[in-house]
Design a protein that fits this description.
This protein is mainly alpha-helical. It is built from 5 helices and no strands. It is globular. The chain starts with a helix and ends with a helix.
C-alpha cells in the first residue's frame, strides 16, 4: 500500500512521505475491528485469559489515535498546499455502487461490534 502511495505521490508531484503516512494510517484504521484478522486474533487470545468485551473500546481508541495522528501529519506536511489538479473527474465515478458498498461495510461492522458485548 505504501509503495503504491509513494509512487502515486511522485507522479502527482506531492510529498511522498505524507502520502505514505496517510496510506499507512488508512490501512491501520480498521485493524482493531472484530472483522479484521488482528481483531479476531486479539479477541481469541484474550478471552482464555479472562478479558472480554473490549472490542469496541480497542477499535475506537485505534480509530481515534489514527485520526489525531493524521491531523498532525496533515498540519506538519502542510496538506492543504497540495496542488488541486485532479486527473479523475467526479463524473467518471459511479456514486451509487460506492455508497452501497460503504453502507454495507459500516452496517456489518456495527452489527458485529454491537453483538460482541
Amino acid at each position: 500500500m505504501k509503495t503504491f502511495a509513494m509512487y502515486l505521490a511522485f507522479e502527482m508531484k506531492i510529498n511522498p512521505m505524507s502520502t505514505a503516512l496517510y496510506a499507512k494510517l488508512g490501512a491501520n484504521a480498521g485493524c482493531a475491528s472484530v472483522l479484521s484478522i488482528t481483531g479476531i486474533l486479539a479477541k481469541n487470545l484474550a478471552e482464555p485469559m479472562g478479558y472480554s468485551g473490549f472490542g469496541l473500546h480497542l477499535f475506537l481508541s485505534t480509530l481515534l489515535s489514527g485520526f489525531v495522528f493524521t491531523c498532525v501529519v496533515y498540519v506538519m506536511y502542510k496538506g492543504w498546499k497540495v496542488p488541486n489538479e485532479n486527473p479523475l473527474k467526479l463524473m467518471d465515478i459511479n456514486p451509487g455502487i460506492a455508497a452501497i458498498r460503504m453502507r454495507l461495510s459500516v452496517s456489518g461492522d456495527s452489527i458485529i461490534l454491537c453483538s460482541d458485548e
